[in-house]
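This part of the workshop introduces the protein records we will be handling. As an example, a complete record with its sequence and its structure tokens follows.
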Amino acid sequence: MAKRGPRKKIYKHVIAESTVKWKPRKEGDKMMIGYARVSTSDQNNQRQIDELVKFGVAPEDIFQDKQSGKTLDRAAWQACFRDLQKDDLLVVYSLDRLGRNLADLIEVEKQLYQKGVRLKVLQQDIDTTNASGRMIFHILGALAQWEREWNWERTKHGLDKARERGVIGGQPAKHTDEEIKEALKKSDGSARGAAKYLTKMGKKCAPITVKRRQEMWAEGRKLQLPVGLGLGGIGHGRMGTKQSKGQQRKVA
């Protein structure tokens, strides 16, 4: 039996909704196509849509993606590109809505140019009608990628420094040493039995949690509760006053 590949993404066009009143184009105006993107279904693209409609894009001509910008293989983007024709104007709210890395942005601009399509980026006020606009497009794309990589390097540096101080990222411990030791006594030293006992007591626990705690005790380490240091602040050179999802715990 032939091995199945990934399921092809199917795009279903939905007319965008906006509180901004759209002004119909005058006869002879060039066709405008809008593209809006957010990375996940939990995010909202309403601001992008409102700005596109305000600029003059008809709500029914806006393609909407809810997918990461790491790849150009996005259903709505592929449908949008197929729909574009010579002399059309593609309008996006921001440069990073098209793509997240410089190579993809350059490829998009090249394909649009070959197709005879202009690109308008509202937030950065870019228009690729002429050579100057295309040059600015490439410069801002390079700066955007540099900023992302620089932020990642700062964050990674902060994480490395935190680990050197013994601060480990992750969820805080849900069970104290005393609770696990008591559960082990009740279950004759069985990690599985201790986990079941804690779960019955309303404190859900997995056997691996008990085993890891036993390994820590054997090595002479002690688990402390979160020390109030957020790794999110370390990367920016300041102590985190706001706890992130991955609150910290310190192993002495």
Observations:
- The CA atoms of residues 67 and 224 lie 39 Å apart.
- Strands lie at 32-38, 62-66, 89-92, 118-121, 126-127, 167-168, 249-250.
